[in-house]
Amino acid sequence: MSVFTAVLARDLRLALRQSADSLTVVAFFAIATVLFPFGVGPEASVLARIAGGVVWVTALLAALLSLDRIFTVDYEDGTLDQLVLTGAPLPVVVLAKVVAHWLTTGVPLIIISPVLAVTLHLPAAGYGPLMLALLLGTPTVSLVGAVGAALVLGTRRGGVLLSLLILPLYIPVLIFGTAAIEATVTGVSAGPMLTVLAGFMVLALTLSPWATAAALRQAVE
Amino acid sequence: MVRPMTGDTSAPLTFSGTNLACRRGGRLVFSQLNFTLPPGGALVLRGPNGSGKTTLLRLLAGLTPATAGQLAWNGAPIDDPEAHAARLRFISHLDAVKPALTVTENLSFWMEVWSGKAVESGIVRAMEAMDLKRLASFPARLLSAGQRHRLALARLIVAPAPLWLLDEPGNALDDSSLKALARIIADHRAQGGMVMVASHGAAFVSDGATLDLAAFTPSDVSHWSDAEEGEK
Hints:
Structural class of chain B: alpha/beta
CATH topology of the largest domain in chain B: Rossmann fold
Strand order of the largest sheet of chain B: 6-7-8-3-9
Number of helices of chain B: 7
Radius of gyration of chain B: 18 Å
Distance between the termini of chain A: 26 Å
Helix content of chain B: 25-40%
Oligomer: heterodimer
Number of domains of chain B: 2
Helix content of chain A: over 70%
Number of strands of chain B: 9
């Protein structure tokens, strides 16, 4: 457990010292979302209809920007070798790094999402489900992304490869995340969609750390 | 998690490998390699570039799997890589130093990871051993290559472990740092610890046995070209 807290605290401290990395992700999310009203036109009904999808797609792309770096820096400076050799189970180390990633990139997205929803004319009733859907969906994004990030370690242009590998896996999260937000616009309950998102999160939480650990062992081999 | 190294003579530690072989990228790096490291022992790995010194150390750390052969700890085969990792420290040519953290923060992180909690006296002791005390609050990005390497070596001190695997630990070190390195290795061995060093000039290990890896490299040139063709 001390390994979990130590790694989590270190990654959070590093993210704080190098806050530009996290801010870039949030800025990308904000700017990409704000582009849509310009592209689609200012008609409120159209924007409200697509708001859920726009927020989710930009959130996924924003997450990809940072997932690229989740293990790369540790891999390049030799820290990853040492983290594999802590004597603690590697999935615990992985989970600490993923939690740190989510706290520094997922949570900021959740916090600013209502502001962006305003620019997309999402009805006020949709703000709650929007944030809940992101709260339940973004951990899955970090967890699944970590597997991909570990798999592409050491390859050239790993970031591009990572997108090809991971984006298709995000489709279920995208479908149910968007449906949860749209449900409120169309007057249906968002409950079942959010439950499915929570299910995805639990599934990712139980499988991803082990898969990521196996990929990391391959990478340091 | 980390076994305290008490240096008790009732259970002397030995680390050995029999018939080790390793294949990397289709090429056999070494084969039929045997060694035994007694308690307090040191083994200096020698050999020309590419003879597999780093590969062997990574294999001994459990990072790289052996193609053949068996590692043993106190005579018992090593089959749990995590338990094995807990009793060793590995210094590679990569320093694993975070530039954004201070010297103290870098050391306290590893102390927390290895021994459960970061204790200031332990960190100070490690910094004193490698003459880093006056750099304590410096961010590691301001350190020179040699100072960064000393910080990596100070990790050996923050939490005890019986087996040290050191890959070219003398790189980028000045004379006084080499003496400090010799001192911590001697102290470690005096407590029953074991050291394995890959080095070209290992003046910092006194009376250690030498393992020349060139002797285990397949000399058969056709063997190499076969392997390379196989890769294509």
